Amino acid sequence: MLRGPAGAWAVLGPLLWGCGLALLQGGMLYPRESRSRERKELDGLWSFRADFSDNRRQGFEQQWYRAPLRESGPTLDMPVPSSFNDVGQDGQLRSFVGWVWYEREITLPQRWTEDLGMRVVLRIGSAHYYAIVWVNGVHVAEHEGGHLPFEADISKLVQSGPLSSCRITIAINNTLSPHTLPPGTILYKTDPSMYPKGYFVQNIKFDFFNYAGLHRTVLLYTTPTTYIDDITVTTDMDQDIGLVNYQIVVQGSDHFQLDVGLLDEEGKVVAKGAGAQGQLQVPNAHLWWPYLMHEHPAYLYSLEVKLTAQTAVGPVSDFYTLPVGIRTVAITERQFLINGKPFYFQGVNKHEDADIRGKGFDWPLLVKDFNLLRWLGANAFRTSHYPYAEEVLQLCDRYGIVVIDESPGVGIKSAESFSNVSLQHHLEVMEEMIRRDKNHPAVVMWSLANEPASFLKPAGYYFKTLIAHTKALDPSRPVTFVTNTNYEADLGAPYVDVICVNSYYSWYHDYGHMEVIQLQLATQFENWHKIYQKPMIQSEYGADTIAGFHEDPPLMFSEEYQKGLLEQYHAVLDQKRKEYVVGELIWNFADFMTNESPFRMIGNRKGIFTRQRQPKSAAFLLRERYWRLANETRYHQSAVKSQCVGNSLFTV
Ligand code: GCB
């Protein structure tokens, strides 16, 4: 959401939020280079300062954006992308709540500042949580929400006169309120015998560290002033003819022509069209199949869009290429169908989380994670508990890893967080999320929230409205939210397409008693299914495990206990997947950082991999299971074979 001027925030201070509904304008196409578009990444070292003043408002009072940051006080070097929390040696910065300031001076190519037919756009991939942006001291954008991109057209600013450099200042506030997503509260501790004056803490109801900063790439890109603003693609099948429906939005001129071509992986044009919307037909289409479901999974076509426009400065062309996977998604009472075939989610829940960089995007980490997923035989993950970087979804498209795309609706626990103010913000977040992720074939379902207090009275209206809105924005995908509410008390469940349930039997209760898991899990499934004849996913289960701790017979926190617990779950899942259970997602792919608490030993240890991505015993167990499940379908044989070289266990 883009907002008005920054003044109000300076007055309200760091710890208050308001969430008015702004109408979402414009597209959010991933910035790709093309014959008409350039991009300049601004990753690297930025100048940085946290505003430690009592009211956290000194930066606004002294207008730090007006002049280079170094002129208003000392600065630190801060890497982008990265969370600011873990790169330093200062414990106060690690847990800082309030405004931090980032600044980068850049030199623009001369053409960008002189060519009035060029549009220069500043794009921020993710700034957690609230961000205000200035260019050369001029306010250009504000955005609420830490996991989705926002942009500002800065052409006028950079083309207004001779310019030697361009200064970008971004103030970011990680304060959460009952109406933010995720929600949080600021608690002032006022007992003078225990706390110094003004002492406060930020309370959250979710179990991951509230990392903050510029978490994803900041970049500049260009388009012509008449440009392709948005493309929406949906796909279908008619016998063996693939149908690609497209809709294109152009900005900058009403007099234009659009030509589209669909290219196969060999670069051959397989269909052509013209105009702002239409349907392309692809005879004998290669479908986009999930990993291990077909010998050639994740087939991607390229939709090449060419815009030609007449403008005051003459004819202009813009080019944009979008990867397209042709696939269908549907559900029955007992199945989740991809391309008409039953699909079983055998996968993980993840986090964007790693040592030092926190939630900062990192290519080596990403590639490692995808290699591990494929080694594991996982075909799916949930973006618990917020939308991940666009590059993550691009890799899912390329590798056939199916995604349940989750909004940052985690920790919605109080009645206040179900209020209309919160709901309006959540509606907007879904708009932003769908606008960004709608064209990814890998995304097969939207998840609106994780473990909300969906037994509270306002939850019924909240989820009914939110789900209807999401379906109106995207009628092509099922919608869910992930629950841990009792099946009889859940007021949101009637509106979801797939029931996703988290449970921690023999972990958060019946400690150490793995013998009760099978009974409790079977009862859980049966109870839900009795009321709602809908497909179900075990969306979380797991046990904290310290890598290298061994106890036999198994004790909690040992590798043996994690394995044993998983095996108990699997025994029931193996029965129920023959009925209506359509997936299992382990909690969690890797250990991750949390707030400090006596319940967490340097973070959450439920990973089957450590935070450094080394396997615990459970990873081998799950690997054996997932490859065995894959072996049960007949579509994947050659993929399984190629993965099995040198591994007799999985030879088919
Ligand atoms: C859950 C939450 C997840 C936690 C997990 C745990 O139910 O959805 O965010 O990390 O339990 O380990 O407690």
UniProtKB/TrEMBL annotation:
Report a single Gene Ontology molecular function: carbohydrate binding
Q: Where is the Glycoside hydrolase family 2 immunoglobulin-like beta-sandwich domain?
A: 226-327
Q: Name one GO biological process term.
A: glucuronoside catabolic process
Any one Gene Ontology cellular component term annotated for this protein: lysosome
**KW Acetylation (keyword) present:** no
> Mainly resides where?
other
Highest rank taxon of the organism: Eukaryota
Q: Which residues form the Glycoside hydrolase family 2 catalytic domain?
A: 329-630
Any idea where this protein resides?
Lysosome
> What reaction gets catalysed by this protein?
a beta-D-glucuronoside + H2O = D-glucuronate + an alcohol
Q: How is its activity regulated?
A: Inhibited by L-aspartic acid.
**Keyword set, alphabetical order:** Glycoprotein, Glycosidase, Hydrolase, Lysosome, Membrane, Signal, Transmembrane, Transmembrane helix
Q: Which InterPro entries match?
A: Beta-gal/glucu_dom_sf, Galactose-bd-like_sf, GH, Glyco_hydro_2, Glyco_hydro_2_AS, Glyco_hydro_2_cat, Glyco_hydro_2_CS, Glyco_hydro_2_N
Query: Glycosyl hydrolases family 2 sugar binding domain: from which residue to which, for each copy?
Result: 40-224
EC no. given is 3.2.1.31
Does this UniProt record's set of keywords contain 4Fe-4S? no
Give TM segment ranges: 6-30
Q: Give the matching PANTHER family.
A: BETA-GLUCURONIDASE
| Record note on quaternary structure | Homotetramer.
Tell me the protein family, please.
Belongs to the glycosyl hydrolase 2 family.
Function, in words: Plays an important role in the degradation of dermatan and keratan sulfates.
Name of this chain's protein: Beta-glucuronidase
Which organism is this protein's natural source?
Odocoileus virginianus
